[in-house]
Amino acid sequence: MNPLTRIVSTCLLTTLLFTGYNRTEAQSPHLQDLFQNPPEAAKPRGYWIWGHGNFDYTRIKEELKAFKEMGLGGVDIFDMGIADPLGIIPAGNPFLEEEMLDGVAFAMQEAAKLDLKMGFSVSNGWNAGGRWTEPDEMIMQLLFWKDTIQGPVNLTEIGFPEIPTTFKKPYGTFELFPQTGPDGFPEFYQDVGLVAFPLTRDPVIRDPGAIIYFDPALIAGKQARVELPAGKWVLVRAVVSPLGQKMWMRSDNSEGFIMDHYSKKATKHHFEHVIGKLQERLGNLEDSPLERLYLCSFEAEDYIIWSPELKEEFLAQHGYQLDAYLPVLAGQQVVDKATSNRFLHDYRSTVSEMFVNNHYRQARDICHRNGLLLASESGGPGPPLHYVPTEDLKALGAVDIMRGEFWNQNSEYHDENGNDLLQVVRNIASAAHIYGHKIVEMESFTSHRKHWRESPFQLKKIADRAFCQGMTRVVYHTMPHSPKEAGVPGWSYQAGAHISPKLTWWGMSKPFHSYLARTSALLQAGDFVADVAYYYGEQIPKFASGSKFIRQSLGAGFDYDDLNKEVLLQSTVSEDGSLQLPSGMKYRLLVLPDDPEMSLEVLQKIESLLQQGAVILGNPPTRIPGLKDYKEQEKIVHQLVKKIWGNNKQPITRPYGKGKIIRGKNERMILRDMGILPDFVYDASISARLDYIHRATENEDIYFIRNTDSTELNVLADFRIRNKQPYQFDPATGEISPLALYAEQNDRTQLSLQLSALASTFIVFMPKPADYPPQVVSVTRDGRSVFPSNRALDLSLVYDDRGKINFTANSNASYELTFAGGSTETIREQKQQAPLKIEGPWDVRFPHGWGFTPLQTFDNLIDWTQHPDKELAIFSGTATYRTSFTVNDPAEKYVLDLGHVGEVARVYLNGVEVGTRVFPPYRFELEELIRKGRNYLVIDVANTWQNQLVGEADKPLAEQRTSSNLGYMREPNANIDKSRTETKDERFSRPWRDLPLQASGLMGPVTLQPVVNQRLVK
Question: Are strands 963-964 and 893-897 parallel, antiparallel or unpaired?
Answer without folding.
Answer: unpaired
